[in-house]
Amino acid sequence: MTAALASFLVFVGFAGLFGGAVARRRLAGVTVPGGWPLWWGVGAGLILAGVVLGVGTTLAVLGFTAPGDVLAYLTATGPGRAALTTLLGTALLLAAGVGGWPERPSLGVTGLGAAITVWGIAGQGHGADHGLLVRLAHALHTGAMALWVGGVAALWGGRLRDWPGAARAFTPLAVVGVVMLTVSGLCMGLEHAGPISQWPREPYGRLVLVKVAVSAAALYAATRVRRHLSRRERPRGELLLELTLLVLVLGLTAVLVNSDPGQHGETGTSRRASPLVASPALEARHPAPLKNLLVRRP
What we know:
Residues 166-256 form the Copper resistance protein D domain. It is found in: Cell membrane. The chain has helices spanning 2-26, 36-62, 67-76, 78-98, 103-122, 131-157, 163-193, 203-226, 236-257, 263-267, 280-285, 287-292. Residues 265-279 and 284-298 have low confidence and may be disordered. By secondary structure, the protein is mainly α.
């Protein structure tokens, strides 16, 4: 469960950092308690904590805690490079948010940082094991979740000058996020859990179905929020329910990306050997234990 916790921290942090940055630009005049720099700083801190927890747990389980081992893991394995990529993108996003740059350069760096970050996040867990297109689906899924969660969090907890106007401004982003989540989620589900008819037969597939059900509940909660667009007072209760369900979706996603897909994942041609076993640098430093140990992904 430590790996799932690490992924969950990264997902929540990215939603706060990237989703918050988009919400600030899209929802005119919205502010958050403590200010946006604090919001973004907390998001970046959660990403850092998740990456450190994931990498540290993997290396601690193996007993590879020497500085040379850490460096070899981060530079010579797929998950290690993905962790560095995630941190690089996070640094760019944070710099774009707090740097005080002109609008266009800031927007460009935000887009670049978001793209780098989601690509790094998608390179850890199942996204790294099934080819370029599936990793792209994982990246799109992560970005779409961040847009939706970050926007709803800003609508619920932020200070709004015009609730109906802010909600209408967020609606196009929410629609894009839902479409991206549906398409990328279907692609990921078919790849990792096999045909939909098989999903109820495997624990992994059943967990996918639970995630689909919770996502549908969050979408229904969003429709209830839209019923209040004609009122001046925002529906904090409905927004809190939607946000709670979306955070639960993030948690389920974190569990899924670190779970064994079962028979489909084991027999599919896309399943690969441990990334640590495939690292010559670590094999040279620790030849004996690596030959007999199947390393779990961080």
